[in-house]
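Researcher: I'd like a structural prediction for the single chain below. Treat it as a standalone chain; there are no partners to consider.
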Amino acid sequence: MKNPAPDMKIRVTPALRSMIDAAARTSGRTMNAEIAARLEWSFDKGYDASAEVEAVKANALKKIQASPIIQLEKQMIAVEARVERQIEELQQRVDELEAKVATLLKKA
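Model: Treating it as a single chain, here is the predicted structure.
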């Protein structure tokens, strides 16, 4: 006598249960056989979760980039760049004025 396969209980959403039921009816299998066949197929085909992992990472990155802290950091970087440009312009103007003062002092 064969030993029966051990029981395994899973929880699925009602929508997924309906899809499994419809697929089982179409294929002429029980729901259990349909689930088992689909799981075996996923392992036989060498299911690769890397695409899903990359999608999760991309989604997480979008959420992080959209966070208020990151947005404030981006604004702060932009303000710092503007301030640095203004400081450079002011330094250039100071240099020009110092040159003019030096010229006027030589003439005097």
